[in-house]
Every structure is written in structure tokens, then in C-alpha cells.
Write a structure and sequence with these properties.
Blueprint (H helix, E strand, L loop, with lengths): L1 H31 L3 H12 L6 E3 L2 H7 L8 E9 L6 E8 L2 H22 L3 H9 L1 E5 L2 E7 L3 H10 L7
Antiparallel strand pairs: 1-2, 2-3, 3-5, 4-5
Helix pairs in contact: 2-6, 4-5
């Protein structure tokens, strides 16, 4: 009987150590978290924007540009526009608490693009840049990328954050 109990305990320990592997998977999920400040810093470097070129959108201005975005549960938010420029370089990087939050943010960000295309963008060059702007979504993350000169590069940078290391 004691031998049987030892074998049962040994089997339980073996199973428990296997469950510990689940914690490693949780750690892998944490590694999949994307630092939006880090992603934005990479975008700045890629585009060669000098310090002071972009400025944060916060408070009332955030609500004016993206009505309702401030009401969504947010884990991370980076919203930047050029301080003084006619160039279109508007970047919003969002991570919500849930995928539903990200979906709501996606709708708000798309509404910003639509409003610019429907008359908000004054100059022909600006209008063309806004027509090329995109909202991207990955899980709890959403991004508005509107950058005439760097649109493709910035979209790729965003997408690369979510590619698996598995080949």
C-alpha cells in the first residue's frame, strides 16, 4: 500500500512539474506584450524624425481628434502628431484591456481617417496621404498610421511586433 502511495505521489509530482511548464507559456505570453513606447521610438528612428518634430495628443485634443477614445479601458496609448508641419504623420498606438476595447478603438480611429478624407484634410497632398492611411488591429492592439512618406514602413513595423518567432 505504501509503495502504491509513493507511486501516486511520484505521478502527481511529475504532473505538477508538467503544469509548471504552463507557467513558462504564461511567460511567453508576457514576452508577446508589445511596448508601444518602444514601437513608437522605432518608428521615430525609421522615419528620421528629429526631437520636437512630433508632439503628444492628450486631454481635450485627444477627445477632439478621437471622440470616445478616452472612455475606453486602455493599457497603453501613444498618440502623436507633428508639432508644426503640413506633412501627414499621425500615429496612434493603442492597447486595450480586451479585444472588444481594441475593436471600439479601431472604429474610432477609422472615423478619424474617414473625417480627414471627407474634408478634414485641406491640401491635395494631405488628402492623398489620408486616403492611404490605415487602421491595423492585432488582438488587444490597434494602430492608426497616417504617414505619407513612410506609410508602408510604419505598417510593417507594427505588423512585425506580432509575428511569431517560429519559422
Amino acid at each position: 500500500m505504501k509503495k502504491k502511495a509513493v507511486w501516486v505521489l511520484a505521478a502527481l509530482l511529475l504532473l505538477a512539474s508538467g503544469c509548471g511548464g504552463g507557467k513558462e507559456n504564461d511567460g511567453a505570453a508576457e514576452k508577446a506584450d508589445v511596448s508601444l513606447n518602444g514601437l513608437y521610438a522605432g518608428m521615430v528612428k525609421t522615419c528620421g524624425w528629429e526631437e520636437g518634430y512630433m508632439t503628444a495628443i492628450e486631454g481635450e485634443l485627444l477627445e477632439e481628434y478621437y471622440p470616445g477614445l478616452g472612455e475606453i479601458s486602455t493599457r497603453q496609448l501613444v498618440a502623436q502628431v507633428p508639432a508644426m508641419s503640413s506633412d501627414v504623420n499621425e500615429i496612434v498606438l493603442f492597447q486595450g484591456e480586451t479585444e472588444e476595447d481594441a475593436e471600439s478603438a479601431t472604429e474610432i480611429l477609422q472615423a478619424r481617417i474617414d473625417s480627414q478624407v471627407d474634408g478634414g484634410a485641406w491640401y491635395p497632398e494631405s488628402l492623398e496621404s489620408w486616403k492611404s492611411a490605415r487602421v491595423l488591429r492585432e488582438g488587444t492592439y490597434a494602430a492608426l498610421i497616417a504617414s505619407g512618406a513612410h506609410q508602408g514602413e510604419l505598417e510593417e513595423l507594427f505588423s512585425l511586433q506580432f509575428q511569431s518567432d517560429k519559422g
